[in-house]
């Protein structure tokens, strides 16, 4: 809770610690909606059960190979060494590079360059100069302006392609009456009366 903040809801199994009155009072005090999983159904807690299985397998493997090291007389020390092995020494290969689980967990995602967008300045309905897009969500967008970040309705955002200086809907361009399609002449139409004389 100190790192991620207070959860809105919490789903647990039916262990005695979670069914206790003190835990119910804790959830009520912090306004946390507490849900219980289906009794004797471990699939409802799949991620936790998989982590438990991985830990048990690693403990059994270490016990079979060399036994519990003499330097680790307490169970807490043995558990800490197995967790260290799993998190720091267990290497997986991804994209022809080796990563430990800890590196994969804290790995930065690839940051792509921010696209340039134009936004409608309300209520004047003028379009801004191209600015960088920070984020775009359902119904909103944040853009980086010289004055600082600005929240804009998503309907007022248009991607900037670097060609047009005005948005297409406010363009006053006139369509030429000639075309350059194959099989058609690019010449202006001839007056039909000029050829009769």
From TrEMBL:
This is Endogenous retrovirus group K member 11 Pol protein-like. It comes from Podarcis lilfordi. The keyword Protease does not apply. Residues 187-197 have a biased composition (Polar residues). Pfam families: IN_DBD_C. The lineage of its organism: Eukaryota, Metazoa, Chordata, Craniata, Vertebrata. One of its GO terms (molecular function) is endonuclease activity. Residues 1-109 form the Integrase catalytic domain. Residues 115-162 bind DNA.
